[in-house]
UniProtKB/TrEMBL annotation:
Domain of life: Bacteria
Range of residues in the leader sequence: none
Name of this chain's protein: Beta-glucosidase
Protein family per UniProt: Belongs to the glycosyl hydrolase 1 family.
Class of this enzyme: hydrolase
Recorded catalytic activity of this chain's protein: Hydrolysis of terminal, non-reducing beta-D-glucosyl residues with release of beta-D-glucose
Keywords of the record: Carbohydrate metabolism, Cellulose degradation, Glycosidase, Hydrolase, Polysaccharide degradation
Protein EC: 3.2.1.21
Gene3D superfamilies given in the database record: Glycosidases
Region span, Disordered: 319-338
Amino acid sequence: MATASDTVAPAGADSTERVFPQDFLWGTATAAYQIEGAADTDGRTPSIWDTFSRTPGKVRNGDTGDIATDHYHRWREDVRIMADLGVGAYRFSLSWPRVQPTGRGPSVQKGLDFYRRLADELLAKGIQPVATLYHWDLPQELEDAGGWPERETALRFSEYAALAAEALGDRVRTWITLNEPWCSAFLGYASGVHAPGRTDQVASLRAAHHLNLGHGMAVQALRAQLPADAKVSVTLNLHHVRALTDRSQDVDAARRIDGVANRVFTGPMLRGAYPEDVLRDTAHLTDWAFVQDGDTGTIRQPLDFLGVNYYSPTLVSAASGEGSKRSDGHGASEFSPWPGGDDVAFHVPQGPTTAMGWAVDPSGLYELLMRVKQDFPRLPVMITENGAAFDDYVSPEGEVRDPERIAYLHGHLSAVHRAIQDGADVRGYFLWSLLDNFEWGYGYSKRFGTVYVDYPTQRRIPKSSARWYARVARGGVLPPAAERG
């Protein structure tokens, strides 16, 4: 946590090149529901996002992921694009209902064959496959049985992890259990702006615990199946929480949001216990009796690195009274995704913003990495997502120029480089995202890709940021700011 007055300037001077470590891993990332399409192909059954997106009023313009960017049929073309970018790794997610349609029982070989072919093609092009087991697409049948608020879902996740590792462990040597469990728990079960769209703060805390438990059990299942040299991790969207002022009320507001944003996951995963202040702040909602003896020991498993997603800082204060503006950047809802934080106000920082309305602030990434270094000094870090949405369009010449995205990436990579110089053990960077895609509740209205997708034709057009990132990834050198374009 920090106060707004504590922020630092973006990293370094802009007149010199920044050389990254020789073994630094340069990658890009996607998620299954956002790109694959083929929603009912080869045995795949609905996930909670299929159900949610097909529910009127839940997703902008009524968009769904039924077709998305048709990656299920165009994966060879997409791998060629990655090879042209010169990236060394590709982080993708497995679709749980494509691999294990009901969330129980045997796997579907046709679904696994898709990921086998994808991994083989990546390896043939010299690109490391990095598989995320869960990027929010819970099989609908498991949600019908209670979803993540129920302990059974964690058990089912462990079984699914074992199936995936057995099928793909000879090809995929880097695995991530969960992507951003904060979103799954609190946007899915508290504010309802993500699937499954429930609005129950107690259920969201139960979901957070069972996501934690599912992570720990999945790590155990992966380790039992994978070769000894395989790497296993989790990806957290750690919030860099700043207090608006140094008033004690605002600092305490930041502490509470930091607790339910970050430490409710890092506590059990990396320290083996839930923080006492988080339990105290939420005691009016639940007594946490769903945490059984031995759970935190199961959750705390050795990790090879910590995946960190960062887009923008979170600026908070104590609420000033009735009607205080809530602007937490996580979608409009009358229900809060912050159990225990009902009297906290969220603020949009001053300065430039992306098309999502998120502040462009690389200093937040630097400060976050230095906090991880301080709190968990022996744990390496991978930036598993970082990027920005802007209002991209195809010019009359057929080009997509996105200088704002290049500036965003330059600033954030400068922050990563500075953190490395200051002792942070950052091993790699995955740009979000390879392709424009289905952006959850925003549908196709927001474009995060470095490759433009014309959705009616599925034509891919690399943006100027793709060419820029290719030069950085191939050389491992960040050019001076004057050379961004």
